[in-house]
Structure formats: structure tokens, C-alpha cells
Amino acid sequence: MLVQNSNQLLHRNEPPFRADQVGSLLRSERIKKARLQKTAGDISAEQLRLIENEEISRIVEKQKEIGLQAVTDGEFRRAWWHFDFLENLDGVEGYEKESGIQFHQTQTKSHAVKVVGKLDFTNHPMLEDYKFLHSIAGSHTAKMTIPSPSMLHFRGEIETSAYRDKDEFFHDLAHTYKKAIQAFYDAGCRYLQLDDTSWAYLCSEEQKEQIRARGFDPDELSALYAKTINQAIADRPDDLRITMHICRGNFRSTWISSGGYEPVAETLFDGLAIDGFFLEYDSDRAGGFEPLRFVKRSDLQIVLGLITSKFGELENPEDIKRRIDEASRFVDLNQLCLSPQCGFASTEEGNLLTEEQQWAKLRHVVEIAQAVWK
Questions:
Q1: Could you tell me the mean pLDDT of each successive run of 10 residues in the chain, 374 residues long?
Q2: Long-range contacts at 310-313 (CB < 8 A, ≥ 24 apart)
Q3: Is residue 247 part of a domain?
Q4: CA-CA distance, 119 to 112, in Å (whole number)?
Q5: Backbone phi, then psi, for 144, in 5-degree steps?
Q6: Which residue ranges does the record assign to the Cobalamin-independent methionine synthase MetE C-terminal/archaeal domain (predicted)?
Q7: CA 301 – CA 297 distance, rounded (Å)
Q8: What's residue 102's pLDDT?
Q9: CB 291 within 8 A of CB 263
Q10: What number of other Cβ atoms are within 10 A of residue 7's Cβ?
Q11: CB of 307 within 8 A of CB of 333?
Q12: Is position 215 within any domain?
């Protein structure tokens, strides 16, 4: 079984932490009601923001109470984990499509983004969102989550009037994200997470066929995305920790893709200059831990998403400990952490569990981590 060699294993002083979380939380009923009221014109944008502030303050205190070292705003001001950020970049617009993103047995609302002009990051509203979270985090670490640069290309449309040249687009995309990363740092952020589902698609034979049908070569995309991400995070401040979360879809407790990390493991673990990966590992759709053999850097943290956010039933702690033990055969225990496999509400609709079950899941993560890294 697992062997702990010092008390320093649990008490990491920098992110990702031994017990961590991906980011999104179930929207409270008060938030849902206020959003409907704002849409109907019954309350103003300022009144909605005050309600959001109060609800975010409440859930931040709950995260502290549970024992998490990193706190998030639950993405309470967003409808989507990615589109809200992307459509507020310069040169990007949101629009309504004929259909949404297809998950197994369900489909999202029909929203999307398109690139209509030159990309840039100037006056982005989520800087103020982060500043509020930072102001109430106290001694805890305020964690900001944004979609990876890959997602604008993977989920967005690029109008030829904006970019005809692929290299110019990816150059500007990397530069835009470089500015975004510096702006969040200047606002106080020291823990930034890039959420990226494209890598999971590149692990799935079924999804790679769909990628080819769109006119893209999966291997070329993998190389382009890795290059762009590395360019975006290059020259970041030394005390800024950047992680990446990878999952196979999370909408109303359903999923999109299946397949282990093997096809992209070397590119990810030995090719991206980030500080840690949050990896979905709550079901056999993610495969085994063997791809972790490509983790060569001793400073790279692997956060095992062994606790599901899709359903409320708590996992057997001994089963989770055994799986951490299995992963430690490929990556040193000192480089492993624990979290849910995804957030609890990638979109405002949220997964099919209660808020009480959500908090129980996060408490479960903390308690198991304390038992493992004691």
C-alpha cells in the first residue's frame, strides 16, 4: 500500500494542492432566480451582480470550511465554462446556432462563438470577477479558471474576413492569451487553470473521425495546440502556477468521448510547460494509468480526478486509495494530488446531484487526501 515519507507530502504550499477542485459549482437557486429576473427585466445588471457577490461569498466560506486550500467563485457569473470567456475577447462574438453540442442522450443549448476580427485581450470583464474572488479569499488561494486557447479554435468558427492565414491566427491567439495571463497576474492571480476538452477528443477514435470530417488532421492539431499553449504561457511570472484540466465532457451528468490518454500522453506530459494536470479518471472511459509513464519532470503535479462530480453517491475511500497506489507506480506519490474529475456545473444547468451532495463530494476529497498524504 501507499507509503508516506514525510509530513510535507500533504501540506503543499503552492497549487495544485493535495486536495483540490476543478472549479465550477452548482448554481444556487437564488442565482438561477436572479438570472431569470434579469432576463425578464425585473432586476438590473447591478442588482444581479450584488446577488452574485453574496452567493459567491457564501460558497467561498463553504469551501474554506470543508478544508480546501484553493477557492473558486464556482463560475457563478457564467452560463458556460468556455463561451463566456471567449466571446469577451477582442475579435470574438457569441451567436446562436441551429443546434447545440451533442452529448450522449442530450444536447446543450445552441450557443457558439466565432472570430470576426483580429484577436486581442484588452478590457475583459472577468478581470473584475477575479478581483472580487481575490478580495474574499483571505489566506486561501483564489483559483481562476479559463478555457485553454485551443478551445477557441476547436469550438469556434473563424471567418475568413478575420483570418485567412492559419499561422497568423495561432500567433495572435497565443499573444492574446499571453496578455490575458499577465492581466490576471497583475490582478493578483497566482493560480490559473486552463480548461481544455480538445485533448480528450484526440484520445477518441470516434471523435478523431469527426475531426477529420471537419477537415482537420488530429496529429497536426495536437502539435498546433501544444505549440500555441507553450507560446501563451512562456515568460509567465515565476510565482504563477498554471494547470490544465482535461475531461471527456460534462453536461447534465453526461459525457461525449472515450479513450485513454495514450495518444496524447507524450505531448501533454513531456511537451507542455505547465505545472500540473487535472485528469479525468472516475470511469473506465479514461483508460489506465500507464500513460503517466511519460511524466518525466519531477516538478510536474498530476491531480487524479478519481471522485466523480456526475452523481451524488460517495466512492469507497479504500477503492480510491488503491487507485492512487496504482498511479504511484508510474508517478511518485509526492507528485500526485486528488480532486473530482470535473466541475459540478460546466454549464449553468449543472449536474444531477444536490448541493449537499456536492459539498459531501468535496469533503470526501479532503478527507481521503488527508488519509493518504499524512
A1: 47 92 96 95 97 98 98 96 95 81 51 96 97 98 97 93 96 98 98 93 78 85 96 97 85 55 93 97 81 96 96 96 97 97 89 95 98 93
A2: 310/250, 310/253, 310/282, 310/341, 310/342, 310/351, 310/352, 310/353, 311/253, 311/351, 311/352, 311/353, 312/353, 312/354, 312/357, 312/358, 312/360, 312/361
A3: yes
A4: 17
A5: -105, 135
A6: 21-370
A7: 9
A8: 46
A9: no
A10: 9
A11: no
A12: yes
**3-state SS, one letter per residue, for the chain:** CCCCCCCCCCCCCCCCCCECCCCCCCCCHHHHHHHHHHHHCCCCHHHHHHHHHHHHHHHHHHHHHHCCCEECCCCCCCCECCHHHHCCCEEEEEEECCCCCEECCEECCCEEEEEEEEEECCCCCHHHHHHHHHHHHCCCEECEEEECCHHHHHHEEECCCCCCCHHHHHHHHHHHHHHHHHHHHHCCCCEEEEECCHHHHCCCHHHHHHHHHCCCCHHHHHHHHHHHHHHHHCCCCCCCEEEEEECCCCECCECCCCCCCHHHHHHHHCCCCCCEEEEECCCHHHCCCHHHHHCCCCCCEEEEEEECCCCCCCCCHHHHHHHHHHHCCCCCHHHEEEEECCCCCCECCCCCCCHHHHHHHHHHHHHHHHHHCC
pLDDT at 253: 46
Specify if 130 maps to a domain: yes
pTM for this structure?
Answer: 0.92
Domains identified in the chain, total number = 1
Residue 332: φ, ψ to 5°: -55, 140
Angle at 221 between CA 158 and CA 150, to 5 degrees: 60
- AA identity, residue 20: D
Largest interatomic CA distance in the chain: 59
What span, in angstroms and rounded, lies between the C-alpha atoms of 302 and 339? 10
Residues of the domain holding 277:
29-90+116-372
CA atoms within 13 A of residue 14's CA, in its CB half-sphere: 16
**CATH code of the domain containing 169:** 3.20.20.210
Residue 210 lies in a domain: yes
Task: Report strand pairing: 191-195 vs 144-147.
Answer: parallel
